[in-house]
Amino acid sequence: MANEKTVFVTGATGFIGGRVVETLYLSRSGHVRAGIKRWSSAARIARFPVEMVLCDIMDKEQIVQAMAGATSVIHCAVGEGDVIIQGTKNLLEVALRLGVERFVHLSTAEVYGNVSGKVDETFPYQYTGNEYGDSKIEAEKLCWEYCEKGLPVTVLRPSIVYGPFGATWTIGFAERFQSGNWGIFKDYGEGICNLIYIDDLVSAILLAARHENAVGEAFNVNGPEPITWNQYFQKFNAALGLPELNEMHPAKSKLKSVVMEPVRSLGSYLLNHFRDSIMKGYMRYDVVARVIKQAKKSVNTTPALAELNLYNRHALYLISKAQDMLGYSPKFDLDAGLQISVRWLEHHGFLLQRVEDGCQRSRGPISVPSDRGTPLEVDG
Amino acid sequence: MSPGNAPRIAIIGCGAIAESYYLPAIARRPSVLERLVLVDSNQARVQEVASAFNVPNYLCDYREVLNKVDGVIIAVPHHLHHPISMDFLAAGAHVLCEKPLAESVAEANEMVAQAKRYGVTISVNNTRRLFPAYSKIKELLSNGAIGNPLSLKYFEGWRFDWPTASGFYFNTKTSRKGVLLDRGAHVLDAICWWLGGRPKPISSENDSFGGPEAVAHISLEYNGCAIEVKLSWLSNLQNKYIISGELGVIENGVEDWWVVPITSKSGKTETIKLKSKEKDYNDFAHKMVANFLDVISRHEKPLVPASEVIPSIALIEECYKTATRFRMPWYETLGAPDGK
Fold first, then answer.
1. pTM, two decimal places
2. What is the interface pTM, i.e. ipTM, of the complex?
3. Which CATH class is domain B129-277+313-332?
4. CB A22 to CB B334 under 8 A?
């Protein structure tokens, strides 16, 4: 291991970071060090005998220890806005100090805001008031600041990433389709869904970490074919073997979203402030559990207003720069990516099946309390 | 043990189970808490936990309390259950060991033999043995309430969120055993206990690439009963067991300890409601700890003697020995070979 390059991955228990770790391990591409915020989320990557280190990116001392000896850093950790900004700054600072050879920052196409048309990397940042996108802009600015100081940084801007272990666009949508309360949104769903299968993103990440042309550059990362959101819904739904989706009336969809918005906000507020009391009620009283489950189901099967806007956004993030400069070439078309994703969903019990198969009928909103530990896992 | 005094016990290992299960139960007994000794090799951790529960006595090396306690609760990482239990048993202390009792049947047998040799007891915290529903099912199966069992399915999956303090579950330097050992210690023990014997493994698959597996599927057979077990640390499964017999079916949530629903062949479901003082896991901890103290001071029988879980420890070991890796197409694209 003396001369072996060490790749340090932040957010290694997450969807993208986890896949980067798995890919590096299975392809025997040097030594991989997985940075994890807490042990309780390590079950997925621990199946691989990789080095794991505790690394809360808000804790500089931990970062110094976790990054020591790393030749490159792939920064996949996310969090609330302050974590995205300050955590990235902490990592950049330490990486510069330790002389890290390459630093790949996972950003997002959301930094372009609510644009339309064909979008390349020359498009300016646009703040939208969305915490995630706005924080990622700040984090990117920090990246360029440290790049100026001499840290070889590369920024990647993916959009809608799906595939095994994907919470929002994979597990979340499988649940929505199976609920029977989801459909296609006519004009509202005709925006471009810049969909990329996780392994294509990981291939771009590894190119960015290795290619000499990548330093100091930002790259859009996208899948091989532009499709609309309605097409994604239909194809995914069909891959799950479900009856065809109904068309949702645009005005009604929007009205429902508007009506559900305060419920969504109230739910978040209550969970953030009265989690313990709610959990006690959930544990002990069936009626409380039923109300929570019903509220969760209604919220989950109603698009948030921001989602409706996303489904109606006519922006295509071009990947010609990554293709030309890095040789990036996405391999997974939607059929291939969905086929693997559905197999994965099935294996992990996310598909509605007979009880005898051991799969859940619907995911409860909150884990049942038990000797396994905290019952406070609210999916998300 | 000094006459008139509460037993002097120690908790070895101050991780999440000590903090959330044993200590709240012991804290209900001030006289025991006062004499309790907390032990953890991590100085900061033992201080933190001692401070949280106002425990005056704590230290880092368990050997310092050998010969000084009447009993110990072993709550250390799994691979240390055997060596530390052996030391305390030899020192004449009763042992209540956290599940799984041991990682191998050889170790488990040694622990039971050691207790016998030194005239003390070793018991294990297989909490589900205390669930009224589980006892009732054992009774129902023995009485032939559903006839001969033809199939038994047990599905247990939760996203792992145990607030493990040391992360030992994932330390491949000490153990590469995952969900099968952790959850299987409950699930396979319940199956062996209900059926009254150790089923034969038919197949065993998991998703390990060299580290602790997070998903395991097991097929077993016992006297004509086909058994299927699915365990997961990565997603929520049905969390049910379904026992189908010649005359009826028992189907229940894995933690619904207060009821047993039985459906007869005619399709009629009768739900047996069981009296249970226990409302949550803390109440079971209280019961387990109360029994352990009575074992020490009143020579009562342990609720779950270690010898009783040996069939499941043996079964888990067999399942690991014969395990192959699932076919997982989402890894084949990354160059992962199929199977072990």
1. 0.89
2. 0.91
3. alpha beta
4. yes
